[in-house]
# Entry
Amino acid sequence: MEKRELVIIGAGPAGMTAAIYGRRAGLDVLLLERGAAGGQINTTEEIENWPGVQHATGPELGGMFRDHALKFKTEIRSLDVKKVELRGDAKIVVTDKGEIEAEAVIVATGAYFRRLGCEGEAEHIGQGVSYCAVCDGAFFEGEEIAVVGGGNTAVEEGLYLTAFASRVYIIHRRDEFRADRAAVERALANPKIVPVWNSVVERIEGDGAVENLVLKNVKTNEVSNLKVSGVFMFVGQSPCDECVRGLVKAGKEGWILANEHMETSVEGIFAAGDVRSKHLRQVVTAASDGAIAAMGASAYINEQLHLRSALLEPESVTAFFYSGADADQARLSNEAEKIAKEKGKENGKKMPIIDGYKNNRMIEKLGVALPSVVELRRGTVSKAVKVASEADLAEALA
Ligand SMILES: Cc1cc2nc3c(=O)[nH]c(=O)nc-3n(C[C@H](O)[C@H](O)[C@H](O)COP(=O)(O)OP(=O)(O)OC[C@H]3O[C@@H](n4cnc5c(N)ncnc54)[C@H](O)[C@@H]3O)c2cc1C
# Structure
């Protein structure tokens, strides 16, 4: 089976930034993409909030990211990742074109906006139909626009859009919003916000750009026209998490949970960009996640190589295992380090000191309790002594 150091799934802004950082850290990087490199930005005509580039189309910016990743000799391969599996210690990326074993995986598969599904929506995406107020709000300075939805996102983004638009109609199929009371009160108190109750959008019309919405009142069946130059759909966003669903922990609606190092619940699998549970889904935050994930993956891969050569390969070795998350154990590790230095001078051997909190899988694999002094013979535990104090430690290492 093909073996690679870092496999990145998804060549959007997060995945391509991860590739640039991964290659510059000296890793062997394979970037897998099922569509066109660039990700979601490929579908937008205007990007004005990527620092340093005052204006670009989405495909232009995506192309710049791809060229940058290629400059550092990233291998980008066109295929669909079906799932990621753990087989023993190995992380296997299963694709429509075979399997790849990876030392570390970054899941950067992004997200998608749910469509409303009405007539005229698809043709007007980027021509007045938008799913992202932060991305596109500024293009509607002084114009009348509409928002579709009645939950928190619709109401809060509607309020955000009043900074640009002269009027924001919020079209909702019920006669009250489902959003938090505070947000609803602020929205209803804002003179620029006009709720359109009990209504759905039947059709979006316009020659090129959006000009008119055909609305239907769901109570009276009455049909009416609403002249607007833009319509923002807030009917939900979902993660593209299928390939790791059930493998890594996810929060509400499937958004992958990752910590500030982009580590998921599975050691060696990182998540970056829109696919993870986060507050702001934008190119700049996706790129930031990608950089952090790649540096985390690089540290993880180096640590795994170190663990293998320090613990599993030698004929015999004595190691100290502790939890870096426990202050007492961390103090004990400082003492272990001192003893290791002294003994090393005497016998010329190195004693690995391993943070079992960071290397949980190795701890599980060896079946070691923390903190312990452990003797290993060719990767198998031959003796393990649990220690609770400096005196215990000195005795175990005597
Ligand atoms: C119309 C529109 C306009 C936007 N405008 C702006 C804007 O002006 N400014 C801004 O900052 N942000 C904007 N955004 C948001 C921005 O595009 C996203 O936040 C950003 O692209 C997220 O990057 P990502 O790499 O996390 O995911 P994505 O861009 O979604 O990329 C994920 C990639 O993974 C691939 N993938 C998914 N699953 C698999 C699989 N199983 N196997 C292989 N490949 C897979 C996908 O094909 C995709 O290419 C806009 C989004 C849209 C839709």
Notes: The chain has a mean pLDDT of 94. The radius of gyration is 27 Å.
